């Protein structure tokens, strides 16, 4: 954390502070239907306001692609944000006039200006002219080099907000300097979407546990018949390359030893547990079996750090959620007792941990889908790098 500034390094009293936040919340009938992201940025906004800053919030909403799209205005988000903060938020569609200490204003969707996604220097200057300082509290948008995430940070004294600071501390504890052994769970449907991720993790992890549909591709590549399971047969050579690369890096790869199989993917479908070598032609693997779960749990028991991205099976439908739920609950118990640093992220992963009822017991759960994935892939995130430079 020492290589960029945080709110502790800024003297914000009577200063106009531009704060980039993530307000890309779901709406239903013109009202915010899930305020999770609003509560995530509330501590930074509240702290700045309490310290006498004149807070100007920048955020995008949807994909208007540089057009003024009324349905994608941030105006309806302002009252929901005010409720989350417990104080007034004024929405302004043009630039704000004179502000008083502690006042909070929300500007219109930055993506209404085509200069935002183009990271146009002119638009960055326009934004920078509104403030004296810049704070980025939107890790979820940090993988994009846009005017409000990267361009403006080059023009003003910049720092990370509390949510960004928390995310970066957790991620750095998990991959940059992890307590070892480092165990990674990588699940999901397809190997093709996780190639860079597996490549990077095989360089840093001690053990990678592969689950979900992608496990079938690895098993098939090793000559196991996976019946009608979801499988990318054309990725066999790539899967074998990943296994070789992991071996060269002294990283152990755990593939399922047994499977829960069924003839159809439907709730309550008749299923059975078999060793992976005994999947019938008309069966598909929809979850890992108890022996595989036990092996994963044993890996968690000896780990210092766990990074989790992707479920073990088709957790949306019972009984194919059992493997993911059991493994998640075991990891959560270890994290809660303080014997494991457990960091998880990615859309499906967050849903799976919520389904298992354990998201709150993990050390840290990132809701930043794309940014979390790119960070796991070892990529530099423009919105974070520019804060380091600052």
Tags for this entry?
six-stranded parallel β-sheet; Rossmann fold; elongated; single chain; 13 helices; alpha/beta
Description:
This protein has 390 residues and is an alpha/beta fold. The chain folds into two domains: 7-163, Rossmann fold, CATH 3.40.50.1260; 178-376, Phosphoglycerate kinase, N-terminal domain (Rossmann fold). 35% of the residues lie in helices and 17% in strands. It has 13 helices and 17 strands. A six-stranded parallel beta sheet has the order 5-6-4-1-7-8. Strands 11-10-9-15-16-17 form a six-stranded parallel beta sheet, sandwiched between helices. A three-stranded antiparallel beta sheet has the order 13-12-14.
Brief summary of the model shown:
The protein has 390 residues and is of the alpha/beta class. It is 35% helix and 17% strand.
Please state the structural category.
Answer: alpha/beta
Helical residue percent band: 25-40%
Q: Major sheet: size, sense and barrel closure?
A: 6 strands, parallel
How many domains, as an integer?
2
Low-confidence stretches: none
Return the CATH topology of the largest domain. Rossmann fold
**SSE string, helix = H, strand = E?**
EEEHEHEEHEHEHEHEHHEEEEHEHEHEHH
Strand content: 15-25%
Ends: how far apart? 13 Å
Shape: elongated
Give the CATH level 1 class of the largest domain: Alpha Beta
Total E-strand runs: 17
Strand order of the main beta sheet, please? 5-6-4-1-7-8
Query: What CATH architecture of the largest domain do you see?
Result: 3-Layer(aba) Sandwich
CATH superfamily of the largest domain: Phosphoglycerate kinase, N-terminal domain
Enumerate how many helices there are, as a single number. Answer: 13
**How large is the radius of gyration?**
23 Å
The pLDDT mean sits at 94
């Amino acid at each position: 954390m020492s290589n960029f500034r945080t709110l502790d390094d800024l003297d914000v009293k009577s200063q106009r502070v531009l704060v980039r936040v993530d307000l890309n919340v779901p709406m239903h009938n013109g009202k915010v239907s899930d305020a999770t992201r609003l509560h995530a940025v509330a501590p930074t906004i509240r702290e700045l306001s309490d310290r006498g800053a004149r807070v100007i919030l920048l955020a995008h909403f949807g994909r208007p692609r540089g057009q003024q799209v009324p349905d994608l205005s941030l105006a309806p988000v302002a009252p929901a944000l005010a409720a989350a903060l417990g104080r007034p938020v004024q929405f302004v569609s043009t630039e704000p006039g004179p502000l008083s200490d502690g006042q909070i204003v929300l500007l219109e969707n930055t993506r209404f200006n085509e200069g935002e996604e183009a990271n146009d220097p002119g638009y960055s200057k326009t934004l920078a002219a509104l403030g004296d300082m810049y704070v980025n509290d939107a890790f979820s948008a940090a993988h994009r080099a846009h005017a409000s995430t990267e361009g403006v940070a080059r023009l003003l004294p910049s720092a990370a907000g509390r949510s960004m600071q928390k995310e970066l501390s957790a991620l750095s504890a998990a991959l940059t300097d992890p307590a070892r052994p480092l165990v990674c769970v990588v699940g999901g449907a397809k190997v093709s979407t996780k190639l860079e991720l597996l490549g990077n993790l095989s360089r840093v992890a001690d053990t990678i546990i592969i689950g979900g549909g992608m496990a079938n591709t690895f098993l098939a590549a090793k000559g196991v018949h996976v019946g009608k399971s979801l499988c990318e047969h054309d990725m066999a050579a790539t899967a074998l390359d990943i296994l070789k690369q992991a071996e060269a890096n002294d990283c152990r790869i755990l593939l399922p030893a047994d499977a829960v199989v069924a003839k159809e993917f439907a709730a309550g479908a008749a299923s059975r547990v078999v060793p992976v070598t005994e999947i019938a032609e008309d069966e598909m693997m929809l979850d890992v079996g108890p022996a595989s779960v036990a092996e994963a749990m044993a890996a968690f028991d000896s780990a210092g750090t766990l990074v989790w991205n992707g479920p073990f099976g088709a957790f949306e439908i019972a009984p194919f959620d059992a493997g993911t739920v059991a493994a998640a609950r075991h990891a959560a118990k270890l994290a809660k007792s303080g014997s494991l640093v457990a960091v998880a992220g990615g859309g499906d992963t967050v849903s799976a941990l919520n389904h298992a009822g354990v998201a709150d017991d993990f050390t840290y759960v990132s809701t930043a889908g794309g940014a979390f994935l790119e960070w796991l892939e070892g990529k530099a995130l423009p919105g974070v790098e520019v804060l380091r430079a600052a």
